[in-house]
Target: Glycosyltransferase family 2 protein
Amino acid sequence: MKDEKTLYIVVPCYKEEAVLPETSRRLGEKMRALMAAGKISDKSRVMFVNDGSKDRTWEIIAGLHEQDKLFSGVNLSRNRGHQNALLAGLMTAVNYADMIISMDADLQDDVNAVDAMVDAYHAGYDVVYGVRSARKTDTFFKRFTAEGFYKLMQALGVDIVFNHADYRLMSRRAVEGLSQFKEVNLFLRGIVPQIGYPWTTVEYERAERFAGESKYPLKKMLSFAFDGITSFSIKPIRLILAVGMVIFVASIIALVWALISKLMGSAQAGWTSLMASIWMIGGIQLLSLGVIGEYIGKVYNEAKARPRYIIERVLND
Ligand code: UDP
Ligand code: MG
Model:
């Protein structure tokens, strides 16, 4: 097939020395099979992005590149988190690739779904979302919280693909579209649907982590979810406004009631109700301030517009 298209698979890696040998073996096999089938050009690459790991991750990546030009590497100047590392990889790969697939390093994303994604690209789709068909290997807690999160996002009016994480294919023009989104608070799975262009989904089964442990403990997961919501929805602020109005109306009614009972001479020392309302209103005020503060913090970060990543070195031929 002439006029073959070049595929880059971008893999962010944070302390992944335990999985990289196996990941690179499987991805190498997959790439060679696709090349042999004439679906991708032989300029295609697997691009590992080292997100400031303190272990041997970068040495392994550099070694892979040394042995086999199929593997390339990007080294970030320090740890910037999954989303930023992924963005760094996408923005580097877009200089060479016609289509880019992003994938986790731990082989939880089924490598075999790559074929269907590449086929969808050739069929004219610009974005192909990998969607988990089952969460058999997830714990009940993870499944419950993750699926609840997608539902909550949708209820808050955020355009997001259900059960899609960051395993997806994007065409070059889709990644170029992404490069026009300058936000610092990155929540890629919320941004990508906003780029537009024809899209489709490919189902895959999410496997267990091949080795090593999750780099997303509950605390990071919650802050990621909260970021996702506050970066894409202002409904929480509206909710605060609504709660405030309800309380305002309620307090006027209470005032009238207090005045009437005073006039009728039946005013008791209403210590209980007084304390209760002070605490409740105080609590709601603090909560509301917190939510508003979160948005102001976001504005602050965006206003500074600091670089989202700094690349120390690129290994690519
Ligand atoms: N990752 C990263 N930087 C970080 C944390 C994670 O590049 O600060 C990468 C990690 O190496 C992996 C992907 O992001 O390729 C997803 O992380 P992980 O598998 O630990 O998350 P989980 O699947 O448990 O949600
Ligand atoms: Mg994982």
